[in-house]
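Protein in question kept in full:
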Amino acid sequence: MNESIISVRYTKALFSLAIEKKILDVVKSDIEVVFSVMSESDELQHIFQNPVLKPSKKQEIVKNVFSSFNKMTLSFINLLIKNRRESHLYDISRNFLSKFRKYNNIESASLTTAIEIDSVLLEKVKNLIKTSLKTEIDLSTKIDNKIIGGFIIRVGDRQVDSSVKSNINKIRKKLLNATID
């Protein structure tokens, strides 16, 4: 079976069950932790990808790493292990968070700046995006000194690039294409 189909089906099942049990926010918090840990830990990804490691050992690791999780979330992860689908956990968590954002009309956005910005300015940017798009915003930040100054905002497939680097490149192109009389 196609891997994306597997992760989508398990995502739908977990999401529906969380809504039914009225614990969607709790499960979402657990899944955010799973996604974060899986993103940052190659070791954990290797453990879940390893077909030689016994399911009981994987369940023990899950119990130790995610001990604070809701009972249903732990049961879901253990079900994945039992069904030999634990290798899809990262994709399932990514899909779950995406489905949660769609369900709650939350748009993902990223702000790239050359230097770190304070929380007051970050909140103003978030509110500006929220007002212009008329939707809730989940804003992530990234620091990239290569843009020299200014900012780049990405929301979905839209991008606003007001970086110094971009402006310099535009001026450079105009100068290269200019004709001298």
